[in-house]
Each structure stands twice: as C-alpha cells, then as structure tokens.
Design a protein that fits this description.
The protein has 512 residues and is α/β, with parallel strands linked by helices. The chain is built from 21 helices and 16 strands. It is globular and about 60 Å long.
Length: 512
Amino acid sequence: MLSDWTAGYVADVGYTYGYYSELNPLRIKLLFLNAGLAFPQVGAACELGFGQGMSANLHAAGSVVQWSGTDFNPSQAGFAQELAGVAESGAALFDEAFDSFCNRADLPDFDYIGLHGIWSWISDANRAVIVDFIRRKLKVGGVLYISYNTQPGWAAMVPFRELLTGHADVLGADGAGIVNRIESALGFAEQLLAVNPLYARANPQIAERLKKIKEQDRHYLAHEYFNRDWQPMSFAKMAEWLGSAKLQWACSANPLDAIDAINLTAEQQALLSSIPDDMFRQTVRDFCVNQQFRKDYWVKGARRLTPLDQAEQLREQRVVLVQPRAAVSLKINGSLGEATLQEAVYGPVLDQLADHKPKTLGELERAVQGDNVNFAQLLQSVIVLVGAGVLHPAQDDNVASKARKRTDRLNAYLMSRARSSNELVYLASPVTGGGVNVPRFHQLFMLARQQGYKTAAEWAQYTWNILAMQGQRLVKDGATLQTVEDNIAELTQQAEEFAATRVPIMKALQIA
C-alpha cells in the first residue's frame, strides 16, 4: 500500500506563485520600533511551507540572510531549489515533511522563522512539531511570523466550508480532479442558497462570501478550502500553542493594524484602552473588527526600548517609494471602510521620496519641518504607506551591493520565464531585500532594454514578436485586440508609460 505523503493536504494542483512581503525580515525593524520593542539582527532565517518558494528565494537573493526552509510538495520544492541555484544564494530548501525537516541535525539556530498560510491547514500533530521546532531552534530574542485564519471572522463560514468539502468528497466524480470537484461543489452551494435556507437567512454575509469565492483562482481555492485540515483559531488559542515555546505576542505584521483611527470607533478604542491585559485586548479587538485572518509577529523574550533608544533608532530607519508619486492614492481601507489621508501631511512626505532614493526617517523629518509635519505625523504616514505597499523598508547600501549580483541572476531567469508565462510577476530588489511587483509586459520591456533596444516602440515590437509566436493577443477593456496594428499600438502605449514612470523606479531599486 502506498503511503500518503500529502497528510491530507491538496497536492494534485500546484500552489500559486505568490510573494508575501510580510515574510521579509527587513519589515521587523520598523514595526518593532513602532511598538517600542527591541528587534533582532537577522542572520539566519527559515520559512516553513514555502509553496513555490518565491518569497524564500527573493529574500535569500535580495539580502545577506542565510535562508533555510521546506515544502513537502516535491515539484514545488524542485522549482524553489532551481531558483536558489540560479541566484547562487545558498538557500537550503528541502521537500521534507515538517517532522523530518524540523529534526534535521544540520540546521542552524534561527533569528527568524516564518509561516504564511500554513498553520490553519495542518493537523494538530504537525502544529506540535512546529511549536517544538520553534522552542528548540528560535534564538532568544528571535522572531516568529505567523499568519492564520482566525475567529470570530470565520464563525459563519466553518459549516459552509464543511458543506463544500463534503460535496467534493462525497458527490465529486472519481478521477475528475480537484478543480472539477471544486466547480461542482460551488455549483451545488449556489443551488442550496437559491432555496433560501434558514442558515443563509441567519448568516446573510454567506451569499456575498460565495460570490467572492467563485471569483478566485481555483488552484488557490483548492489549497485554501479543500484540505483535510482547516481550522480557524482564536488569538487566545494561538497564544496557548505558542506559549509553550516561550513566545510572546509582539505586534501585528500588518502595519495598518497599528492605526486605530481607520479600524476602530472611538467607543471601541475606549473599551480596548480600559483592558489592562495585552493578550485579552487582542481577543476583544478581533471581535470589534470581526477578524478573519491574522498576521502576527511573536518574539522569544520581548524587550522594551527606552523612549530615547526608540526615537533614535526610528530616525535611522530607511524607506523607499516603490510606486510613481503621481499614482499614489490618498485613499486607504481599514476595518471601518475607506478613509482619506491628509494631503497636508502625506503630500510633503511623498514629495520628498518622489526621486525613489532611500531616505531615513531622520532625513525626512528635517525635510518636512517647513511643512509643519511633526515626527509623530511622519511616523504614522510611513506606517500607513508601508501598509499600503507604497513604501518599503530599505536596507543599507553596503548590504544591497553585496546582494546585487544574486538579484541580477535571479531576475534574468524570472524575466526569461515571463516570455511564456504570466505567473511570475515579482522580481528581487537588493534595496528592499525582497520582491517587487513587476507585471509580465514590464518584464518583457526590461528584457528588450537589456538586449539593446532603446525606444518604447522597439520594446513593444520585441514583446509583440514573443506574443505572436505563441498565438497570444492583448485584451483591452474586456475585448481581445485582433489586428497586429492594434496589439502593437497598445504595447507601445504601455511601453511609453513604463519608460516614463517605471524605469526610474526599477533603476532606483537596482532591478534595472
């Protein structure tokens, strides 16, 4: 009898090629400093369950951190190992199950361990293995990043998810494959809601949730909803699990969670401020915002900074603008809905960063003093803009220079893959120590530029030649462009915009 190496996890479709900036150790410093906590210098890091390995490889190539990690799926681990070999980053990436990997004798002790989208989808036995690994291998002062589905936001969805998986298991056609079984399950769920069951009337948000689920990539849904194990966990329960590894909650890894004004009403803020216990306060906050997914940093031995140390170290923090200044929206979404950022504060800060050169908060503080922006306002604006993905923390120039050859090698490979695929839409920056979103056509324009083509028209023609060879056409406003002239005209327009607004950013981030 064949052994089931999947342990109930979906393995017949590959995981998506996503990149998750929360896994970047460079983010720890800013968010810990904002919370008044000492942060570790990360020399060795580990990602458990790295999927296709995009995050692990972009971080390994873009920094001087020594990365290790595992993903039980051998095809995914093989791709991740290929990227590590191309970059020559030295990342040690394996295809072992957690119990095998976590008991390897050749692993270093880690300053940082990250798990994204793993905890809620594995068994209690695997959770116990991971907690024991963290207890043994995370250094004192080291940080754990972990994300997971949480209560109370998933309360109504738990029985509905069981319905979907039950249909896929019981009524799904044998041999149909997980994607076809997902389609059948979603179709049945629509039939159920159409007969107006009391469950749907008691939980009116379910119909909207199903609508959103149907819009999502089926491979993502397979991994998100259709595993054997799927357990949303309350913050309090998570604290019980991690407490045995001597971990304390440090702060949210989502910077926007630190901004109460966009997430909590005045009455909710007053209630939370009256709760003396930090951990119970987080539980109550989850009820206030109906939290569905948590991304948190935990630390083995939290140490508070003095106000002077915090102030000085914050001013040394560097950030870089990764979007065109003109494209930055002053609208932001929190739990309370959409909020408008103050132009009088955010405008001067963004103007100072518009050249896309990394700057310290101390430099920004001096630059915006004439605009009557104080340091507290500056810090909040930076936190918000990092949370919105507009700013990224930036590492020291000497570290970036050491990483540049690795990122160049990795990016050349990824851009070459863009000729035939639109799945890999991130490139590595030695400035940010991680990934930056670069869509397929932008990657192809950069390939053309690297091969000596100088004008936007030449970049467009180069890109069109690649698309035409594969019988591909552009889609504009929902319609496929049929003629060669229309396709090249649209590519030329995109190339001109790329040249004007994106090439300076790619240069500043040392991607181009």
